[in-house]
Specification:
CATH topology: TIM Barrel
GO biological process, one term: lipid metabolic process
Number of domains: 1
Radius of gyration: 17 Å
Structural class: alpha/beta
Protein name: GP-PDE domain-containing protein
Bound molecules: SN-glycerol-3-phosphate
GO molecular function: phosphoric diester hydrolase activity
InterPro entries: GP_PDE_dom (IPR030395), PLC-like_Pdiesterase_TIM-brl (IPR017946)
CATH class: Alpha Beta
Pfam families: GDPD
Largest sheet: 9 strands, mixed
CATH architecture: Alpha-Beta Barrel
Number of helices: 9
Order of helices and strands: EHEEHEHEHEHEHEHHEH
């Protein structure tokens, strides 16, 4: 079972920043999860919320600011001394060239449409030849359908937060390969069914080590965790 660092090593480092991604690699994560939005000047930036209010010393919506404006703030809101900035997806991909990490790019287009986001992200993945290392996901399943229409070779996974009936069958209707369910709705049967049907399943956000052990034993594909270091140690036992 693979370990994906949720927003990087976000328990101990500023989420969705290069500091958190590099820390995840250092503690042995197999992959990172990150979130993307489009700026006013149509650049793809890595951040979770639609605004920078929670995670920086600034304020405002991503869609109303340029990359230059966004980079004038610091993003170590919960910590001190990291002096870290917002990154473009291009900058993260440039770093990913130096390692073998997998990367889940979550398109944060469920509140704002961010017209052209799918095309831009897929173009960048092609530029870096990362087709096999990236999994695209979104709570906006119309957007995933669009991604598959643009390029069918990049894996997509339906991200959801509700208690769905047979999610492993639902995904056929939107033509995506995998599911990213909330851990509270992940039963043993769901993992077993996904395994049987060859459907990648990566629950979020799993910070309990007993749960990680159970999921691994059942043959779960991967988990998203805020504590990749602890998870890596657990998986070595
Ligand atoms: O992509 C898995 C997980 O990150 C989804 O929840 O709120 O962190 O985007 P959220």
């Amino acid at each position: 079972m693979k370990i994906f660092a949720h927003r990087g090593y976000s328990r101990n480092y500023p989420e969705n920043t290069m500091v958190a991604f590099k820390a995840a690699e250092q503690v042995g994560a197999d992959g990172i999860e990150l979130d993307v939005h489009l700026t006013k000047d149509h650049q793809i930036v890595v951040i979770h919320d639609e605004t920078i209010n929670r995670t920086s010393n600034g304020s405002g919506k991503i869609k109303d600011m340029t990359v230059k404006e966004l980079k004038s703030f610091t993003y170590d809101y919960r910590f001190t001394g990291f002096n870290t900035s917002i990154s473009t997806l291009d900058e993260v991909f440039e770093w990913l060239k130096e390692n073998q990490l997998m990367c889940n790019v979550e398109l944060k287009n469920n509140l704002y449409e961010y017209k052209g986001l799918e095309e831009k992200v897929i173009e960048l993945i092609k530029d870096y030849s990362f087709d096999r290392r990236i999994v695209l996901s979104s709570f906006n399943h119309h957007s995933l359908l669009k991604c598959k229409e643009i390029n069918n070779s990049i894996e997509c996974a339906a991200l959801y937060s509700d208690k769905l009936v047979h999610p492993e069958r639902y995904i056929e209707s939107i033509k995506v390969e995998g599911i990213h369910p909330p851990i509270k709705y992940v039963t043993d049967e769901l993992i077993v069914d996904c395994k049987k049907m060859n459907v990648p399943i990566r629950p979020y956000t799993v910070n309990n080590m007993e749960t990680i052990e159970r999921l691994a034993q059942l043959g779960c594909t991967a988990v998203f965790t805020d504590v990749p270091e602890e998870a890596r140690k657990k998986m070595k036992n």
